[in-house]
Design a protein that fits this description.
By secondary structure, the chain is an alpha+beta fold. It has helices spanning 2-41, 56-62, 120-123, 195-202, and strands spanning 48-51, 64-78, 85-100, 107-119, 132-135, 138-149, 152-159, 165-174, 177-182, 204-207, 216-222, 226-239. InterPro entries: DUF2993.
């Protein structure tokens, strides 16, 4: 009995040491991955990286991690319009089946899915900031965006000297572009204006490319403070 008791104590101690070593190793790996991601994507701050699954050391031995979660608080995405960028908030992505090189210099996920948000103030940058000539002595521009309820965006259009009018618009993703399209056109100043001219004000688009690791836009939906987007990708690079 004494020998058995000693054996059990040894097993418990060794098990505890293994768990401790495993957690220390995963903490170190998360820090290294976060630093590499910050450098590769030229981020302003270090992202959050969380390696899921236990034990970590057996995953390392197999050369692949089951599940890695990445969080980037603020990401400046390129818009394809000169050097302009668009701030994307709270980008969170889950990477699956992450394979890495023997020297940990590169890591690539088989698939990735995530979520993020863009405030209405940021999306408003995509609308024409300068007034558009509608003819009949009228100029107009988009001055506000807000949640319109029922999956719509409320777009505020201002014409010089006239009250702001509002239109409900749909928002959708086409490739790497977010498009805002008025469901029906507003009457501006009681003047009959051609649809194309009015849509040159109410309808606009925002290209968003060069997202981290090669992920891309999937869906977009209006929310209280901005639009919520989902992203996805395959062969997504975490490092290297």
């Amino acid at each position: 009995m004494r020998a058995l008791r000693i054996l059990l104590i040894v097993v418990v101690v060794l098990g505890g040491l293994f768990v401790l070593a495993d957690r220390l190793a995963v903490h170190f790996a998360e820090g290294e991955a976060a630093d590499k991601l910050r450098t590769n994507e030229n981020l302003a701050s270090t992202p959050d990286v969380s390696i899921k699954g236990f034990p970590f050391l057996t995953q390392v031995a197999g050369g692949s991690l089951d599940d890695v979660e990445v969080g980037i608080k603020d990401y400046e995405a390129k818009t394809g319009n000169g050097g302009e960028t668009l701030r994307i908030d709270d980008l969170k992505a889950t990477m699956k089946d992450v394979e890495f090189s023997s020297d940990f210099g590169s890591a690539t996920a088989s698939t990735a899915r995530g979520t993020a948000s863009i405030t209405y103030a940021e999306l408003l940058k995509a609308a024409k900031s300068q007034p558009t000539d509608l003819g009949f002595g009228l100029t107009a521009r988009v001055v506000s965006l807000a949640d319109g309820g029922n999956g719509k965006i409320k777009v505020g259009v201002s014409a010089a000297g006239l009250p702001t009018v509002y239109v409900l618009s749909s928002v959708a993703v086409e490739g790497d572009t977010v498009r805002v399209h008025a469901d029906s056109l507003p009457s501006i100043g009681g003047v009959r204006i051609g649809e194309n001219r009015v849509r040159s004000v109410t309808d606009f688009q925002q290209k968003i490319d060069d997202l981290p690791g090669g992920i891309h836009l999937d869906t977009v939906a209006p929310a209280k403070n901005g639009v919520e987007i989902t992203v996805k990708g395959s062969g997504v690079r975490l490092a290297g």
